[in-house]
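Dear support,

I submitted the protein below through the web form. The confirmation email said the job was done, but the results page showed an empty box. After a refresh the structure appeared. I'm attaching both so you can tell me whether what I see now is the final result or a partial one.
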Amino acid sequence: VIAGTGSNSTKDTIALSKEAEALGVDGLLLVTPYYNKPSQRGLYAHYKAVAEAVNLPVVLYNVPGRTSVDLLPETVVALSKVPNIVALKEASGHPERVEELLPLVGPDFRIYSGNDHEIAAFIKRGGHGVISVLSNVVPKGVHELTALGFSGDTLAMDKAQEDFLPLIETLFMDTNPVPCKEALRAMGFGDGSLRLPLVGLKESDKEKLLGVLTDQGLI
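What the results page shows now:
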């Protein structure tokens, strides 16, 4: 179990991370601080302080589209030298960063796609998999897609990626996790409830989602 304990306050992130550690989680996923837009030096200081405050492995999470700050490769390389910073979830939309980073980080450092439409692109560049929204809906399918890539069958992996694109696009037609929760509700998992300010899908979008789920044989 990897707990998401990131916030835009280093003090609060440390407190949440210590609480998660006390609860017995296996690792931490730490999103870049949002809104206050720290510099690269600030990002380095933030992550280093949190990592040194706990005894758990830390996964960096770069998602500029949601935080307005980009954790640049040179900062990732510097942070990879902190002993318990072990991985990166990269959702910048630049899968080529995998090839830039791999020669510069240690052999045990892992780089995961944070974008479901880029799973194949990451694996072909040497990435180690995906931390995924899609896998909440089709966990076996995502597992099989990555396994094809790791076995060297990139043509079959590309085909599997392409086959999932309609579902991926639908799962992101509104803010994640709104469509994902509705999809799971339709499949019999949970009631799709959300916390404000997130609200449910419009009826037209709900119909579209149900149509894609039907086409994919999920309902």
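Response: this is the final, complete result; the empty box was a page-load delay. Strands lie at 2-4, 27-31, 58-62, 85-90, 110-113.
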